Amino acid sequence: MVNFKVNGTDRSFDGDPDMPLLWYLRDEARLTGTRFGCGAGLCGACTVHLDGQAVRSCQTPMRTIQNRRVITIEGLSADGRHPVQRAWASLNVAQCGYCQVGQIMQAASLLQRTPNPSDQDIDRAMAGNICRCGTYQRIRAAIKMAAKEQA
Amino acid sequence: MSAIDNVSRRQFLGGAFTTGAFVLAARVLPESVWAQEAGFRTRAESAALSPSIYLGIQPDGTVFIVTHRSEMGTGIRTSLPMVAADELDADWSRVTIEQGIGDARYGDQNTDGSRSIRDFYEAFRRAGASARTMLVGAAAAQWNVPAAECVAQNHEIVHQGSGRRLGYGALVPAAARLAVPRPETLQFKPKTAWRLVGKETAIYDQSDIITGKAQFGMDVFREGMVYASIEHPPVLGGKVRGYDDKAALAVRGVKQTVPIDPFEPPYQFKPLGGVAVIADNTWAAFQGRKRLKIDWEDGAHASFESEAFKQQMLQTVRQPGQVARNVGNVDAEFTKGGKILEAVYYTPMAAHAAMEPPAALAEYRDGKVTVWAPTQNPQAVQDTVAAAVGVDKKDVTCHVTLLGGGFGRKSKPDYAAEAAVLSKKLGKPVKVVWTREDDIRFDYYHTTAAVYHKAAVDGRGRPTAWLQRSVFPPIAAMFDPKARHGLSIELDMGLSDLPFDVPNIRAENGAAEAHVRIGWFRAVANNYHAFAAHSFADEMAHAAGRDPLEFLLDLLGPGKVLDLKAQGVEYSNYGAPYDKYPIDTRRLRRVLEVAGERSGWGKRKSGNGWGLGIAAHRSFNTYVASVVEVEVDARGQLRIPRVDQIVDAGTIVNPDRVRAQLEGAAVMAAGLARTGEITAANGRIRQSNFNDFQVARMNDAPYQTNVHFVESDNPPTGVGEPGVPTVLASLGNAIFAATGKRVRELPLSRQKLI
Question: Is the CB of A96 less than 8 angstroms away from the CB of B405?
Answer without folding.
Answer: yes
